[in-house]
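User: Before I run my own analysis I want an independent prediction to cross-check against. Here's the chain; please return only the C-alpha cells and, at the end, one sentence I can use as a sanity check.
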Amino acid sequence: MRDVNAPHGTVVDPALQSSALCAQCHGFYETGERIVGKEMQTFLEWQRDYFQPGLGKQQCQDCHMPRTLRKRAEGFDVPPRAVARHLWTGGCSRQRHLGSLSLTVVREQVGSRKLSFHVSNIGAGHSVPTGMARRAVYLRVEVLDMKGNSIGGKEWMFAPFKGDRPDDKAFLQQDEKLGAAGAALARGDAQGPHEANIRAGEERVLNWEPALAPGKYTVKARLSYALDRFAERPAVDDRSVLAKETLSVSIP
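Assistant: C-alpha cells:
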C-alpha cells in the first residue's frame, strides 16, 4: 500500500508490489530449486529466466493486475489514481494468452521441402504454459494442395512435466509402484515424450520436412491453448488460437 492520507490507518508494505508476494504459492517452495520444465515453477521461471537476465523489470502484479484510473475510496473527495485491478488474469485469460507467444514459419531455401517453425516467448515473464502440468500449447501444421485437400500434417505439444524429469512412457511401471503418489506422474508419462514449456525469452525452433511431390501447396500453422491436456484437446478455432501463420510453397 502507499503512504497516503486516508480516513483510516494505512501501512506501507513494498512487498505488495513485488513478485515476492507470489513466490511461496507459485513455485519457490522451501528450497527455491529451479527444475527447468517442471510444473508449478512460475515464480522461479520469472526470477531466473526473465528478471535476473534483464529481459524486463515487470513484477507479477504489473501483468496480472492491470491498472485503471479510479478513486481509491468511494464517497470521498479524492482524485482518481492509478489502481491495480484485482482480476488476476492468468491461465483462463484470453488477454494473457494472446500476448504470450509468437509464431513464424520459415522455408529453409527455395525448392527445399524443409520447414522451420519458430515459436517465441517474448510476451510472458515466465514459461508458457506455466503452472499445472495439465496445461498445454499445441502447434498444429497442415499442408493443403491447390484444391484445398489436406495431404499431411504434424503436431507438437508443449507442456510442463509433472515430476523432476520429462514425461516418458518408460516410467509407467515405476509409477505404479509408487501407489497414489505415482498416479499423478503416470498421467503425464502415459502421454509420452513432448516438448517442454517455452521459457521466457526463448525461441524454440522445430523442423519438419514433409514428403511433397512437385507442385504448389499451402502450409497452415496454428498455436492453440488447452487448460487440460488430459481431458480435452482444443478445437482449432479462434477461441483457442494464440497465433497462426500461412506459407505458400512451390516444389519444383
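Sanity check: The chain has a mean pLDDT of 88.
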